Structures are given as C-alpha cells and as structure tokens.
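Bug report

Summary: structure tokens for UDP-glucose 6-dehydrogenase differ between web form and batch submission.
Environment: batch mode, default settings.
Steps: 1) Submit the sequence below via batch. 2) Compare with the web form result.

Sequence submitted:
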Amino acid sequence: MNVLIIGAGYVGTTTGLLFAELGHSVTVIDVDQKKINDLQKGKLFFYEPGLDTLLTKHLASGKITFENDHQRAIKDNNLIFICVGTPQNQDGSANLHFLREASEFIASNLNEYKIIVIKSTVPAGTSKQVKLWIENTKKDPVSFDVLSNPEFLREGNALHDALYPDRIILGSENDKATALLQELYKGIKSPFFVTTPSAAELIKYTANSFLATKISFINEIAILCDKLHINVQDVAKGVGLDLRIGQLFLEAGIGYGGSCFPKDVLALIDTAKKNNIDLSILEKVHAINENQPGYLFKKVKTRLISLAAKKIAVLGLSFKAQTDDIRQSPSLKIIQNLINEGAIVEVHDPVAKLPGNLVDTVCQKDSAEEAITNADAILICTDWPQYKNINWAGIKNKMNSPIIFDGRNMLNTAEMRSIGYIYEGIGYN
Ligand SMILES: NC(=O)c1ccc[n+]([C@@H]2O[C@H](COP(=O)([O-])OP(=O)(O)OC[C@H]3O[C@@H](n4cnc5c(N)ncnc54)[C@H](O)[C@@H]3O)[C@@H](O)[C@H]2O)c1
Ligand SMILES: O=c1ccn([C@@H]2O[C@H](COP(=O)(O)OP(=O)(O)O[C@H]3O[C@H](CO)[C@@H](O)[C@H](O)[C@H]3O)[C@@H](O)[C@H]2O)c(=O)[nH]1
C-alpha cells in the first residue's frame, strides 16, 4: 500500500518506519525542511534506540522517502496519516493550529477520494472538526473520510511499541476504510479495536491520564511513607501484585515529565471544563506532579541547610532514560531551584543536552564521575541504568561529603549506606 505521513517528528518518523517495515511504500513530508534534509541522509534529529538502523535499512530498500514536493505527495497518495504536533495552549487546551494547517493543505490538493487518519493526540470531536475544515476549503466535490488512530508509543521504546503495541485503536465509521486500515496493520499481532472517532480520541487522553494518576497516587503515598518510615517500593510491589492493579507505573520519584503526560492531563481537564464536568481528580494529579520535584529539593535543603556555593552534581537531564528529550523534565525544575539558592550545579546526561537558558549557569560534564568529583551532594534525576554501575565505593572519597538524593529510587539503599553514603530516596527508601 502507499502511505503518506504528514509530520516527521517522533510519531511520524516511527510510524513511517513501521509501515515500511510492514512492506508498504511510505512518503513523509514536513514543513521543517532541515528535518527532511537530515532524514534523507539517514540522520535522526532525536535519540531513539534502534530507529536509526531501521531508517538506514528502509532508505536503502526504497520503502521510505522523505519528500520536498508536498503538493505532489498529497495528490499521489490516498491514505494520509496526520502526525503533526498538538502542543499545549497557555490555558491547558490542545493547540490545533498545525492540525488545521495540515487539514487545509490536504483539502486544497484534494484530487480524488482519500482516507485521512489523525494520529496526533487530539480532543474528542476533533475528527468532526477536521472534516469541516476540509469541507470548507476543498475546491472540487471530492469525497473523503476522516479516521482516528491514536498513537501509544513511549519515547525510548518507540520501535518496540510500534511493532508490538498492546492494542491498535481505530475510530472509523466507514467499513471499507476500516478494512483498509486492518490490511495496513496486518503484520501486527495485537488486538484491533474499532470504535467511533470521538471515542478513539478520548481513549488516548484517558489512557495517558490514568497512567499519570497512578504515578501521582504512588507519589502521594510515598510522602506518607516517608512520614511513617515505610518503604514505598515494598508498598508498590505488594499492591501491584494484585493483577487488577499491576506493577507498572507505580514507581515513586520526582514526577512525570515529557511531551505527553503533562499536556494531555491538562487538555483532558480542559475538555471536561468546556463540558461543565468536574474532573477534579486530574486537577489533583497535575498539582501533585507540579510539587514532586520540589519534594526532593526540600529534602536537599533540610539536610544541607544552605546551598550557597555548595557544589551539587545532578545526574540526568532527560525526562526519563533512553531519550534525549528534556521537555517538561523534572530535572530542569530541580536545577533551577538549586541555582536560585546559589548552588554551583554540574550535570551529566548520557545523551541529553542542557537547554539554552541554562548553558551559561550550569556546567555539563562528559562523565558522571567528573560531575561527582568535589560535590557536596549528588541528585539523581533520571533513571539511566548506567548510573547503577558507577564505582560508588571508589568515587566516594572524591566527594566533599558523600550524600546522595535519589529522585528515582534506583540505587540499592542498604548497599549505598554500607559503603558510607548518606542516602535518601523518595518514600523512605
Ligand atoms: N512523542 C511521543 O512519544 C508521542 C507519542 C504518542 C502520541 N504523540 C502525539 O503525536 C503528535 C506528534 O507528536 P511528536 O512528538 O511526533 O511531535 P513533534 O513535534 O516531534 O513532530 C511534529 C512534526 O510535525 C511537523 N509539522 C507541523 N505542522 C506541519 C504541517 N502543516 N505539515 C507538515 N508537517 C508539519 C513539525 O515540523 C514537526 O516535525 C502529538 O499530538 C503528540 O501528542 C506523541
Ligand atoms: O512508574 C512510573 C512510570 C513513569 N514515570 C515518569 O512518567 C513520565 C512518562 O513516562 P513514559 O510513559 O514511559 O514516557 P512517554 O514517552 O511520555 O510515554 C507516554 O506518553 C506517550 C505520548 O502520549 C504515550 O504514547 C505513551 O503510551 C505514554 O506512556 C516519565 O517522566 C517517567 O519518568 C514515573 O515517574 N513513574
């Protein structure tokens, strides 16, 4: 099958490579010419394990093409996936500006029947809105269908999640279009659930908000655990053994970040508000998450008292391991707090880089060991597995004072204390 992808970001690039891997012929377009130029040369603009190899493979196989001629791309393809960004507006609502632009561009080049699939995360009812935008812009009486096929991949696991998703959700009211999409995904052995476009759109936000709720819930329990001197990891394990609850997304820490959970929780709150529905549970989820980086910071202040001129090593910048994405990363909030209190901050991350506003005030080191040397304390902000393998016994004597605040509960408490560290995690860890 021939497929066109609009938007060569995380989702568009991964989806394009997935379809190429399934044997389809994929064309990808993006308004960002530099991204297209780089992708044509096999260069990914983000760090995502395994994706670069697949890109090289399918550029060579000719199954994926990154195209500059956008009009021709629309005219030549009758199955189009929209994967543009839907960022957060100031009031928390989803910004559909890029989606509207892409829809109207399709409309002005609508030469024959097309199936338009929205993969971007969009509020319930957006498929209907896209239909209207296209109807109002198209020049000729050509028919089309708009479907919803939300994406559930995680950054850092994009390839695995694309090839082995827990489910494929399709919002479609046209049986022929549904059959075509089922054919497109034929190689994927996962449940294929068909519902209305609006329900598909709401499933996406509900899933992300539920996972965010699990995280905020365990983070609140962790604060109680600190007070009661009970280990939150034991509590999470015992609770998660109940199959109705499950073990995943019960890791207490410094809160969720990234380009999805924070914005999607706020967008669902906005949808509820616009419909006069009280979704206060999600307002609380958001508020807890806003406070969680500050909770670790408070522990630092309580122990060190003054941070002025203290050297603090921060391990991890990205919002989670296996990605260089620093959007909404709790690590950045903590670094800002440290700077505000006069601390000298040295950071390390295996792949992520400091944002422009921090490069002059914070020093990024090439290795964790360099950042730790002469530090008055270490703050672990991202759960990069390599931090477990630091020679903790060896490096202890290079610190001014051996104190670790583990915002991801990733090190072994007993081991760290036996080496001689003052070690504090989240939730009496
Ligand atoms: N990043 C993730 O892990 C993830 C996972 C699931 C769902 N989503 C959702 O998928 C959508 C895309 O996310 P992303 O992370 O890939 O975003 P992104 O910002 O990485 O990529 C979006 C791309 O769309 C391009 N674009 C914007 N307007 C365009 C237009 N009119 N024509 C062509 N290209 C255009 C941009 O230049 C950009 O390259 C969002 O709605 C997001 O919430 C993201
Ligand atoms: O027990 C946990 C699990 C995660 N996190 C944090 O939660 C955030 C999000 O993690 P994760 O869900 O793994 O990353 P994303 O790549 O943001 O993926 C989420 O957002 C995507 C975009 O919508 C969805 O497609 C995915 O299904 C959904 O998991 C990160 O900061 C994690 O550190 C925790 O604090 N505790």
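Above is the batch result. After comparison, the two runs are identical; trailing whitespace caused the diff. The radius of gyration is 24 Å. The chain has a mean pLDDT of 97.
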